[in-house]
Amino acid sequence: MEESSAKRDELQVGARLKHARLLEGIRIRELAERVGCAESMISKIENGKVAPSLAMLQRLVEALNRDLSSFFGADINSPGLVQKAGERPISTTDAIRGGEGVSYERLVPFAAGNLLEGNIHRIEPGAEKIDQITHQGETVGYVIDGELELTIENSTYKLASGDSFFFKNHLTNRYHNTGTVLARVLWVNTPQVH
Length: 194
Prior knowledge:
Layout lengths: L1 H23 L3 H8 L3 H8 L7 H10 L4 H4 L18 E2 L10 E5 L10 E7 L4 E4 L6 E8 L1 E6 L2 E6 L3 E5 L4 E4 L6 E7 L5
Antiparallel strand pairs: 1-2, 2-3, 3-10, 4-9, 5-8, 5-10, 6-7, 6-9
Helix pairs in contact: 2-3
């Protein structure tokens, strides 16, 4: 029983490490360079094959611009998760999609197997995101604040606070903040299966 509990804890450290690395938008190679270890070591930790020493864990967490308390703040295996306003992690990069001036306030913990991915997209005036990656699933969004020009395939829509949208994920999409204030969009979609 203790062995399976220890294994679960190792997997949780690995899943948290991968989650933090993806939120930071960096590759395994870059993280390995930051902490001074081999790429294979990072891969083994992320896959739960190796448990990092406390010193290594501290270096990893600091290299990802986090601290240990925020790194272990939410139990990704808990049946539910409540995140108070101002306490949700915000990523300034998306490892897969391009976009300057766009950040993502995570609503759903990043973990393999989740059926939904949810963020509040924070788009600075003039900023845009282009998503040419398509996959199966659906996306729904709601403009909380600001103005947005949303293009789905070849159709462009002007959206404002209170407007919503829905599309299938096999369609390409892009958006652009055409206003003069920060736009915030509640964005929920089926995650891409890797």
